[in-house]
Design a protein that fits this description.
Elements (H helix, E strand, L loop, with lengths): L9 H12 L6 E5 L7 H12 L13 H7 L6 E4 L16 H10 L5 H7 L11 H12 L8 E6 L6 H12 L5 E7 L7 H4 L3 E4 L5 H12 L3 H11 L3 H9 L1 H20 L2 H12 L3 H21 L11 H10 L8 H16 L4 H15 L3
Parallel strand pairs: 1-4, 1-5, 2-3, 3-4
Helix pairs in contact: 1-2, 6-7, 9-10, 10-11, 11-12, 12-13, 12-14, 12-17, 13-17, 14-16, 16-17
């Protein structure tokens, strides 16, 4: 991967580039930030840039033998460790999951832990980095670099290290061999063993902007910018969440239709139809019903903002905007806060195992009163 392929965090990229150019890349570098923020890709881009024989313009060339080896995950001086399960036997190490790993990093330019669990064929598993993997790391890092000046070990999610494994790696990370570089990539730096954390130079990666995530969605899925912005905004910089919204497009189509139906029936105060509407939502699984209510909250807020006639503040798909042109005047300063509060209260009550049919029918009655203010 090249630096130019990493989403956002230009300052962090420049900092790492300067370190490598000055031959001052620390022996243990920690890249950390929230889940859904591209970090693993930056670690891979740094390793490729470090090994590239012809990097120009502040990036690896992408065409030299070293770059091609990185791109095919066959660079012999670059190693990876990551959490895994014992599904391939009690003595397995990361090397036994290299096929799944290559598929994972190829299919997911922004690392997605849930997607990794799915590839491990156990979405309920709790993968870890075991002591035997620590032994594997130590064995690899004692070998001299074969084709380059430095060998690099990229450790994804060091917070998943079992304590015994972390303690075993401690001295190697603190006093590595001269040709040894560790790049740790974490979603939760507070979960890393303190003694390892203290031995790393840290770079915090920030959430990419809404525009950056939207442009990524456009390039990956061929979306229109307006639709991409509407999905990127509620994702709040989490690229994985934004991608899941794209991939579950049928669900969002359903949510849009149900929201429109609710608002029309509420304005008509048609209780005979609001009751079956509430039963349809109640029949959804609890988490899906809550996702719908979150969607409804966002739509109410977006429609209130729509009345400000300031398009850059709005994040609506084209289909949502078509409805909002007519509906938005009914969401105003007299009712917007109350409607949002009722939707959020209903979501909290459902999360607390309340009777969804009663909660949702009560919600529709309250909205039918508030919508006419």
């Amino acid at each position: 991967m090249k630096f130019s392929e990493v989403l956002g965090n230009e300052q962090a990229i420049e900092q790492i580039r300067r370190m490598i150019d000055a031959d001052k890349l620390p022996h243990a570098l920690l890249l950390y930030g929230p889940a859904g923020v591209p970090k693993l890709g930056l670690a891979m881009a740094a390793a490729q840039y470090l090994h590239c024989k012809n990097h120009t313009g502040g990036d690896s060339c992408g065409t030299c033998p070293m770059c091609r080896q990185h791109q095919s995950f066959n660079q012999v001086d670059t190693h990876y460790s990551y959490p895994f399960t014992d599904s391939k036997g009690a003595g397995s190490t990361c090397d036994d999951y290299i096929g799944e790993w290559r598929e994972f990093v190829t299919r997911h330019p922004v690392e997605d832990y849930q997607a990794w669990l799915h590839l491990l064929k156990n979405d309920n598993a709790q993968p870890q980095i075991f002591v035997r993997e620590a032994d594997n790391i130590m064995r690899k890092m004692t070998l001299s670099a074969y084709t380059t000046k430095y060998k690099v070990h990229i450790l994804w999610l060091p917070e998943k290290l079992k304590e015994e494994a972390a303690n075993k790696l401690l001295k190697l990370i603190e006093e590595p061999y001269d040709d040894c570089k560790f790049i740790l990539v974490s979603d939760n730096e507070k979960g890393i063993l303190g003694t390892i954390l203290s031995r790393c130079q840290r770079i915090e990666l920030r959430k990419p902007s809404t525009d950056t995530v939207a442009r990524y969605l456009c390039s990956q899925y061929g979306m229109e910018m307006q639709d991409a912005l509407a999905l990127a905004a509620p994702a709040d910089g989490n690229v994985n969440v934004a991608e899941r919204m794209v991939q579950t497009g049928s669900e969002f189509h359903e949510f849009r239709e149900r929201f429109i139906e609710l608002m029309r029936l509420a304005y008509q105060h048609d209780l005979s139809q609001l009751k079956p509407w509430s039963e349809v939502i109640a029949d959804m699984k609890r988490e899906k019903a809550r996702r719908f209510l979150d969607y409804a909250v966002r739509q109410v807020r977006e429609n209130f903002i729509y009345n400000l006639h300031n398009p850059e503040l709005n994040y609506l798909t084209r289909e949502e905007e078509a409805f909002s042109t007519r509906f938005s005047p009914f969401i105003n300063e007299r009712n917007v806060e109350s409607i949002v509060a009722e939707l959020e209260r209903a979501s909290a009550d459902i999360a607390g195992n309340g009777n969804a049919k009663i909660i949702l029918f009560d919600l529709t009655i309250r909205i039918s009163i508030l919508i006419r203010r």
